[in-house]
Amino acid sequence: MGIKKYRPTTPSRRWMTGHDFQEITKDSPEKSLTLPLKRTGGRNAYGRITVRHKGGGHKRLLRIIDFKRDLLEVSAKVIAIEYDPNRTARLALVEYPDKKRKYIICPNGLKVGVEIISSNEKSVEIKIGNTALLRYIPSGTMIHNIELVKGMGGQIVRSAGGAAQIMAKDEEFAHVKLPSGEVRRVSLDCHATIGQVSNIDHEKISWGKAGRMRWRGIRPTVRGLAMNPVDHPHGGGEGKSGQGNPHPVTPWGKPTKGYRTRNRKKYSNKFIVKRRKP
Questions:
Q1: What is the pLDDT along the chain (278 residues), one digit of tens a residue?
Q2: Is the peptide bond before 246 cis (omega within 30 degrees of 0)?
Q3: 34 Cβ contact partners less than 8 Å away, ≥ 6 residues apart
Q4: What is the pTM of this model?
Q5: Most buried by CB count within 10 Å: which residue of 50, 197, 204, 270?
Q6: Which domains does the chain possess?
């Protein structure tokens, strides 16, 4: 999992970096674990754009990933490490004794040939790739793919290089420090996977040119200041001008750049011990 540099044959190539993909052991995905992926262009069911700056990009196949790890007390063997175009992390293809295959989020350091297990037992070995109840994972352990509701499957800490840490435990909950710095209470009956998510160098990649973002399906983002007043509250003015007051705001006039939008009555507020922002 290293970073490769390119020869500066063009101005955009000079600062461009990319993944070397040395950890990848299989070029094509498992056909039985893929589905066609239809592009939305950022539009919802009514055809209205709800997410801007999306469109185009390479055609992709959706990989079906086992976030639940609910095949308990049965060891699985890692048979391949694969690239997934739909996420920043790598995938591990595992095979069970009955020849059933599944994709899981690949932890950093997991190798082909290693056996992993998902367990509800206290005797589960605390090693990279194993999934266990938070109740039986020691405090201080780095974890990922964490359930928020028992049996729902891992929902948080799934992107490249992500890792949470168990800080403490009480009678019903574990206090988990998330990558954002937030400390959150999670039920001891929820599952989590041991280790840090793979592809830890992802955040160091320099994309180098706009076209590379278009390949990923990301369209250009224009600054509000560069627009006309009809298009954005920051637009207009003679020459270069500031954002004005009471700005900065979104294109729809809502405060932004640090303005908190979380609902004060949200049901999960009671589970947050310490917020990521003071």
A1: 689 999 999 999 999 999 999 999 999 999 999 999 999 999 999 999 999 999 999 999 999 999 999 999 999 999 999 999 999 999 999 999 999 999 999 999 999 999 999 999 999 999 999 999 999 999 999 999 999 999 999 999 999 999 999 999 998 999 999 999 999 999 999 999 999 999 999 999 999 999 999 999 999 999 999 999 999 999 999 999 988 888 899 999 999 988 998 999 999 999 999 999 87
A2: yes
A3: 61, 62, 63, 64
A4: 0.91
A5: 197
A6: 3-202 (2.40.50.140)
